[in-house]
Amino acid sequence: MKKLISLFLCLAMVLCAMSALAEGQKVGVSMPTKDLQRWNQDGENMEKQLVEAGYSVDLQFASNDVQQQLNQVTNMINNGVDVIVIAAIEGSSLGSALDLAKEKGIPVIAYDRLLMESDAVSYYATFDNYMVGTVQGNYVKEALDLDNAEGPFALEITAGDPGDNNANYFYSGALDVLKPYIEAGKLTVKSGQTEFTDVATPTWKTEVAQNRASSILASFYADGSNIDVWLCSNDSTALGVTNALEDGYDGEWPIITGQDCDISNVKNMIAGKQSMSVFKDTRTLAAQVVKMVGQILAGETVDVNDTETYDNGKIVVPSYLCEPVFADVNNYAELLVESGYYTADQLQ
Ligand code: BGC
User: Fold this and answer.
1) CA–CA separation, 309 vs 311, rounded Å?
2) Is the CB of 212 under 6 A from ligand 1?
3) C-alpha span between 7 and 176 (Å, rounded)
4) What number does the ligand 1 atom closest to the CA of 280 have?
């Protein structure tokens, strides 16, 4: 019994010492924007979990303005944060701030989006971005039964922001699945726009995706022909495409893919307007990053599960990839509501 009590005392002392250690330490968290739902959730989850672990937190959002993010990150470094976590607006634009972090010996964690062209990036935590694309591509393949059906099916593609390294992975993952069917003529792209540069959506903006989709609809589908599938890399672009279809398309409603499970898009899934999304539980990513922060500051080995994929142009950044999960109208309740991610009311 005595042994048990002293074991408990010991454990309590270690825990106290750990949180006392964390208490003096400050983590800077830089998020790209409050405009898109997911970054608000990422910011909130990071702040909550870091505070629970005993750190003080400087959380800033940068209104999708590259200069603003650069200033915010520079200020965090000058104000003496111990670690900095950054989800970049534009992966290559924070060079001078990253150099400063390196000079001051402040570890940098790239959050969700890789920081490019810098050797000052210590770690990267994200979801498996290529897998997000393959989940979308495989969904289309199965929904249209591309191996057996005769087709041809009409496809259009909307991808993400060229300044975001993730966007290419999403696009490549999906296209690696669908390209053979495009080449075989089973999928036809009437607009002729299939290259990433043609289908990209700068800053992932809904309105930009909507305008491009409207112009494709007016130019290639005004004769009443159907679109069978509109591959969209994420939910903000899927929303733009959905709006454009609602405004200027009379054919059969196409398969639309997405990513993030944003509230408006989950509502669209329930209403039958969006076919699927990819759920990236921001609580999981935040927990992984908080763990990384703790390991870095304690001088422990940092958990990574990929040391090959993410070359940022200067170094291959050791990464932890969380697993994205397929979501549709059949599993959203379990995935999103029962898990406490959203309340049922939020999705009404
Ligand atoms: C994220 C996606 C998100 C997109 C737009 C990407 O970097 O990985 O989850 O939809 O940015 O914010």
Assistant:
1) 6
2) no
3) 55
4) 9
234 lines ligand 1 (CB under 6 A): yes
The CB of 260 under 6 Å from ligand 1? The reply is yes
Q: CB of 166 closer than 6 A to ligand 1?
A: yes
**Count, residues in the chain:** 348
Work out the end-to-end distance of the chain between its first and last CA atoms, rounded to an integer number of angstroms. Answer: 54
Tokens, residue 265: 């898009």
The residue extents of the domains of the chain are: 2-128+281-322, 129-280
- Give the closest residue to 305 by CA, choosing from 323, 318, 293: 318
On the question of a common fold for 2-128+281-322 and 129-280, the answer reads yes
- Name the H helices within 53-164: 66-78, 95-103, 129-143
Q: Is the CB of 204 under 6 A from ligand 1?
A: yes
Residue 109 buriedness (CB in 10 A; 0-12 / 13-18 / 19+): buried
> What is the CATH superfamily name and number for domain 2-128+281-322?
Response regulator (3.40.50.2300)
Domain 129-280 classified CATH 1.10.620.20? no
Task: Express each pLDDT in 66-88 by its tens digit.
Answer: 999 999 999 999 999 999 999 99
What would the pLDDT profile of 254-309 be if each residue is shown by its tens digit? 999 999 999 999 999 999 999 999 999 999 999 999 999 999 999 999 999 999 99
Helix, strand and coil content of the chain, in percent to the nearest 5, comes to 45, 15, 35
Atom 6, ligand 1: residue with shortest CA distance: 166
Which numbered atom of ligand 1 lies nearest the CA of 164?
A: 7
